[in-house]
Amino acid sequence: MPASPTASLPSLGQAILDRADQLARHSDMEGGLTCAYLTPAHRAAQALLAEWMAAAGMDVRVDAIGNVIGRYAAAAEAGPGARVLMTGSHFDTVRNGGRYDGRLGILLPIAVVDALHRAGIRLPYHFEVVAFAEEEGLRFKTSFLASSVLAGRFDPALLERRDTAGISLGEALAGSGLPGGGAAAALAAAAVDPASLLGFIEVHIEQGPVLLHHGLPLGVVTQIAGSSRFQVRVGGTASHAGTTPMNLRADAAAAAAEMVLLVEARCGEVASLVGTVGQLEVPNGSSNVIPGACHFSMDIRAGEDGIREAAIADILAGIERIAARRGVSAQVERVTPVNNAPCARWLMDQFATVLAKRGLQAFELPSGAGHDAMMMQRITDIAMLFVRCGNGGISHNPLETITAEDAQLAAEVLVDFLRHFQPRQDA
Ligand code: GLV
Ligand code: MN
Ligand code: MN
């Protein structure tokens, strides 16, 4: 075995960053990066990723939801029963997002496979890199579409869900040219066989300030916080802003404002709990009309499922109380609740060993952000490697950044991890 396939490629980190820049040129917006599921920009990014996987020596397939899956086939000695170690992350983005969220976890393993391939190194197992097509929930307001298909957890009722232009997920898939044309059976058939998997690992930008604060380039994730998202529709009475006395109004926006403050107050009560209203609108509002409707999103997360569920129960009861007192209606739709996902100690330990060999601290931290690994944890053991986020740890923002040095180090750690990887003994 050559000593280090990355030693000959000291600019791997910079190459990863360059590719993130190249990928970010495909955007739904001018002057920033938005890559929503199945838009032309998304399809272009998907094609580019497939091209890079193929050039790195992988066999590439695209599944029924649009995931691009590259397989770096096992060494011949592994035989026909070789199993799969899977990695990957998402290439869709939030609106005006950063270029590393998700994408780092695709570009980095592609670069690693490329280095292994060039060095003539095959692994004793298949290594698959998945570019997940949808994780953020931007277009259909439901996240983890792509990983839920791969994990065999896709809910076919979601095919009816519509984007803001009125196009359903089923229609978008039917017109996409993806295999299966959006048929529920094809989406079910795209599930991976859990018995074929050795585990799932995900490299991701931390999206927070903890590693930066500790002066550490990399961290090992202990668990991923569970999350619940909701869409709330408050209905009031639209009427004249000049003639309707303040005590005779059913103002949907004022009621929503009180509900937003309730989310903030309740989620501020427990340290590990967070709650966010990221979307808030008065549909067809006018400055001289009392809002007859107000729609908003709620995103509630906690490291412990019980803490999240207790907060949700309180908030939903509070929303009802506010609506009743103000004479408005409130419809609450729950979307994609995902439970807390613990990482597997045996995989975390293997990352820790690799880090220790390089003299690096195996710093452990939980993830407050959601990741594709959460869905994969339903069918296999998972681990995550976090890479330090610059600019104060800002993410879901164009200011999100990492350094080439940290990307290089993460790539080298991944190479070592893959070359020394030991399957779980009882698996
Ligand atoms: C994904 O980025 C999420 O945590 O919402
Ligand atoms: Mn994200
Ligand atoms: Mn992400």
UniProtKB/TrEMBL annotation:
This protein's record includes keyword Manganese: yes
Name of the featured protein: Zn-dependent hydrolase
Lineage summary: Bacteria, Pseudomonadati, Pseudomonadota, Betaproteobacteria, Burkholderiales
Assembly with partners or alone: Homodimer.
Gene3D superfamilies: 3.30.70.360, Zn peptidases (3.40.630.10)
Cofactor names: Mn(2+)
PANTHER family: ALLANTOATE DEIMINASE-RELATED
NCBIfam families membership: hydantase, PRK09290.2-5, PRK12893.1-2
Statement: the UniProt record of this protein carries the keyword Metal-binding: yes
UniProt record similarity statement: Belongs to the peptidase M20 family.
Any GO MF annotation of the entry: hydrolase activity
Pfam family for this entry, one: Peptidase_M20
Transmembrane annotation, as ranges: none
Species, as recorded: Cupriavidus malaysiensis
Record keywords: Hydrolase, Manganese, Metal-binding
InterPro entries in the record: Amidase_Cbmase (IPR010158), Bact_exopeptidase_dim_dom (IPR036264), Peptidase_M20 (IPR002933)
